[in-house]
Amino acid sequence: MLRYAILELLHHKPLSGYDLRRRFGGSIVFFWKANHSQIYPELKRMENEGLLSAKRVPHEWRPTKKVYAITPKGQRDLEAWLRRRPKLQSVKDEMMLRCFAFHLVPADEADAQIRHHRDLHEERLRHYIAIRKDLERKHGRLLETADPILFWNVLTLRQAIAHERTYIAWCRWALRRHQAFRDRMERGHAHLAG
Amino acid sequence: MLRYAILELLHHKPLSGYDLRRRFGGSIVFFWKANHSQIYPELKRMENEGLLSAKRVPHEWRPTKKVYAITPKGQRDLEAWLRRRPKLQSVKDEMMLRCFAFHLVPADEADAQIRHHRDLHEERLRHYIAIRKDLERKHGRLLETADPILFWNVLTLRQAIAHERTYIAWCRWALRRHQAFRDRMERGHAHLAG
DNA sequence: ATAAACATGTAAACAGTTACATGATTCT
DNA sequence: AGAATCATGTAACTGTTTACATGTTTAT
């Protein structure tokens, strides 16, 4: 999958491994992330398969860059992948796995975990909104753009933001529900004791 | 991570690899999935590490089962894991990666992809809601339960359902937005032509 | 001086999917 | 007779993370 993200990025313009790695901290981070230790070997493999062509570009004072460009074969591969109908990805959610097992820890510990998780998602949401503000400053009203690249990027950003908001709302709801559950249990015990 | 899912399931009662695999088609499927080819080797590893104990249980007519039970060490490991504060998982979303590249395919193909994806999520949502109905039939009003295990399970189910609904709503919104984008582009061209 | 950014790689471990492989029992 | 379910494994491949490893340039 990483290779398709790389092909899409190189479709815009040739980039080095280092440049690509920085791109994975930008707009694409909403739905894909990659470390340099995964990027460099993948670029080599893709070059061997004829999807990319590499060129060493020396720079007077700075280290020489190895710049990769997409080949016609790479273009065809990317477009063929876009036309496939993929299956649904299976969900892997560590927080929900923990939540499923929270009956094994004290109630306060469960609350602390949920609050911590909510804070992390709130931070990520703020980051996404900052990126959106940035795009708005540069391009004006995003949903009225005439640029297809920006248009699709804005749609993915919207999905990322909606996803974070849903997660945060769930955390808040779960904390309220848990409080109600604890109150109920306490009253139950009081009743039995009294 | 799989091991903690297994430990949680074995905390309730001892199970064979085959039983565990079926559990991964039940309530836990909302946030974790595992194939038998991953389960069997993992069980062996966990037994070697002293987290589980195995017992061969022969059955008059059916194949002998190898039933695993959680050990005190396994219990401690599970509880220690529950008290850790994990980092946010990085998002990996194939559909959004595709969407990011949809400027490379014809608009109708992009629409077909989004509709297909919406259908898949709608099916998954129906499946989750069927599971919830089942739980309601068995246990009555789920949010008023006094059983901590059921309580936390219901919270994870709610998150799974909210997640699917957000995704479906995004697909519908994206289709509307894309139609508006296409209309705008057409009017733009008409204007230039006229 | 030293920290941050530029620049590129490898190695080991961990995680997950798909395909291969076998054989009994039960239901239609 | 054939399909479904029970039951357990291995092999090959693909993907991802963390740590190791090195060296330059630029800004403070």
What are the salient characteristics of this protein?
3 strands; 7 helices; 194 residues; three-stranded antiparallel sheet; mainly alpha; 2 domains; elongated; Arc Repressor Mutant, subunit A; homodimer; DNA-binding
Structural commentary:
Two copies of one chain form a homodimer. Chain A is 66% helix and 7% strand. By secondary structure, chain A is mainly alpha-helical. The first copy, chain A, folds into two domains: 82 residues, Arc Repressor Mutant, subunit A (Orthogonal Bundle), CATH 1.10.10.10; 100 residues. In chain A, strands 1-3-2 form a three-stranded antiparallel β-sheet. The longest helix of chain A has 46 residues. Chains A and B meet through α1, α4, α5, α6 and α7 of A and α1, α4, α5, α6 and α7 of B. Chain A binds a DNA duplex (28 and 28 nucleotides) through α3.
Q: Nutshell version of this structure?
A:
2 copies of one chain form a homodimer. Chain A contains 7 helices and 3 strands. Chain A is mainly α and 194 residues long.
Furnish the topology, listing elements before pairings.
The structure is a homodimer of 194-residue chains.
Chain A (H helix, E strand, L loop, with lengths): L1 H11 L2 E2 H7 L12 H13 L3 E6 L7 E6 L1 H12 L10 H7 L6 H33 L8 H46 L1
Antiparallel strand pairs in A: 1-3, 2-3
Helix pairs in contact in A: 1-4, 2-3, 6-7
The first copy, chain A, binds a DNA duplex (28 and 28 nucleotides) through α3.
Mean pLDDT of chain A: 94
Outline of chain A: elongated
Radius of gyration of chain A: 23 Å
DSSP helix fraction of chain A: 55-70%
Distinct helical segment count of chain A? 7
Strand content of chain A: 5-15%
User: Strand arrangement, largest sheet of chain A?
Assistant: 1-3-2
Question: What's the number of structural domains of chain A?
Answer: 2
- The strand count of chain A comes to 3
Q: Which structural category fits the helices and strands of chain A?
A: mainly alpha
Biggest sheet details of chain A: 3 strands, antiparallel
Low-confidence stretches of chain A: none
Instruction: State the end-to-end distance of chain A.
Output: 62 Å
